[in-house]
Known about the structure:
This protein has a three-stranded mixed sheet with strand order 2-1-3. It is built from twelve helices and three strands, in the order E-H-H-E-H-H-H-E-H-H-H-H-H-H-H. Helix 1 packs antiparallel against helix 2 (60-89), helix 3 packs antiparallel against helix 5 (140-166) and helix 3 runs parallel beside helix 7 (194-228). By secondary structure, the chain is mainly alpha-helical.
Amino acid sequence: MVIYNNTTSSSSNFLLTAFPGLELAHVWISIPVCCLYTVALLGNSMILFVIIVERSLHKPMYYFLSMLSAVDLCLTVSTLPTVLGVLWFHAREISFKACLIQMFFVHSFSFLESSVLVAMAFDRFMAICNPLKYATVLTDKMIMMIGLVICMRQVIFIFPMTLALKSVSFHGGQELSHPFCYHSDVIKYTYSNPRISSFLGMFLQLYLTGTDLLFILFSYVLILRTVLSIVAPKKQQKALNTCVCHICAVTVFYVPMISLSFTHRLLSSTPRVICSVLANIYLLLPPVLNPIIYSLKTRTIRRAVLRLFQSKCSRDPNVKGSQRRVGWKWRTC
Length: 333
């Protein structure tokens, strides 16, 4: 505890917290956390690389999946320095400007992921409900326009909020509940009434992610209606199987996000360690699970990854030599 509390904070800084009450176990906690970050970075990088390299994956569904992997990568990188800094080096202190920048990126990429999930729901809607118009509507140009609109939407809503926070005065030296800066956590320490800023933040979150979730639910109502109208059970199952990965991605993203938001704003008596665990689940679970889900459930992704590894092994002279030796031994036997 002496090591953990040796950080002195100036009036313009905040103190990050990883897992309150478990400071002595930070070294051990960092092992699974590092493993999760590694899986998130490698998994999403692999998905991105495979989609770029494999021409057979240059289709609307996989373009949107590459967007999701890119957002998950950025979201992971935006929290990685402070999380590992607190767990490994007890580097708890963060300046207000650095906190503001991190908060901008965390919320921007979080809302960006929500928008990408809407685009993926639209892709599934077109593929199942309007298959004849799928290729003519979701062209490369249209996908680029959707990506541009998604990015502009985040800038229009998040950037003004961040600029507004820059002019707000905060109580310095306060302990945050997470190892990164989160709006509803930081806003509690303003000199002005924090409830107004908190509810404005909640309104923005409900407007952005709430409308996204409504569009996703509406898309699946239409998809379900179309699937139920199909006579053949095998075709029904095939149509629904194409949506399983997206449904899992939506669940993994929205459930922790809604839980964390309501815990901060409506359940003020919740223990800080629970808030910290929810925050880490919210930011780590989607980047870790999304590439695993899509790799296991999507046959084309799985085959593309296997082909990539096989081609890499065939180019490696050491692997070729070992294969020849094994083949020679087999023939002699």
